Amino acid sequence: MNLTLLRHRVLAALLVLLGGSYCLRAQSPLPEEGPFPVSLIRVIANPEKFDSHRIRVIGVLDYGGGLDNSVCLYLSEADARNAVMPNCIYVDQSVDKGDKRLGRYVILNATFHYGSGHGLEYLSFEKISDMKLWPQQPEK
Questions:
Q1: CA dist., res. 101 & res. 133, Å (int)
Q2: What is the pLDDT of residue 132?
Q3: Which residues lie across from 54 on neighbouring strands?
Q4: Which residues are bridge partners to 97 per DSSP?
Q5: 120-133/104-117 β-pairing
Q6: How many whole angstroms separate alpha carbon 65 and alpha carbon 58?
Q7: What pLDDT digit, counting tens, does each position of 70-115 carry?
Q8: What pLDDT shows up at residue 101?
Q9: Any idea where the domains of the chain sit in the sequence?
Q10: Rounded distance between C-alpha atoms, residue 41 and residue 60, angstroms
């Protein structure tokens, strides 16, 4: 095999490797430039995959049923009404009792945090940049 042919093969292999890694990075499920839209059930089922990433989710905003009156994002209205804690994620933002978003579906952009230890898991939304009624509903 001549030297020119060998150089061309090495160059082609390098381009394939570099191009492949660029494509994998471009198709990453968690882009760094903005919140990644994901279902709330997927986040609850695989919290370690979304830890410390900006995500956009839709769920029902309501109180978590605890003594501290914390606010959570639930999978559904039935889960919120019955305070089904395994189907909710804590929202690190205070919400007044008169807030029109309570008990309603909202779309939320936030950083997701997952922690575990001593047999317990802690799921929360922090650094909330946007929380609106979903679908977009006019103010009453």
A1: 6
A2: 93
A3: 111
A4: none
A5: antiparallel
A6: 20
A7: 899 999 999 999 989 999 999 999 888 899 999 999 999 999 999 9
A8: 94
A9: 1-30, 36-133
A10: 12
Let me know if domain 36-133 sits in CATH 2.40.50.140.
Answer: yes
* pLDDT in the model for residue 120: 81
23: number of CA atoms within 13 Å, CB side? 6
Nearest to 91 by CA among 116, 68, 117, 64: 64
- At 16, list the tokens: 């394939």
Q: pLDDT tens across 34-54, in order?
A: 899 999 999 999 999 999 999
Task: Tell me how far CA of residue 126 lies from CA of 36, 85, 94, 114, in angstroms.
Answer: 15, 18, 11, 11
> ∠ CA 96-127-89 to the nearest 5 degrees?
70
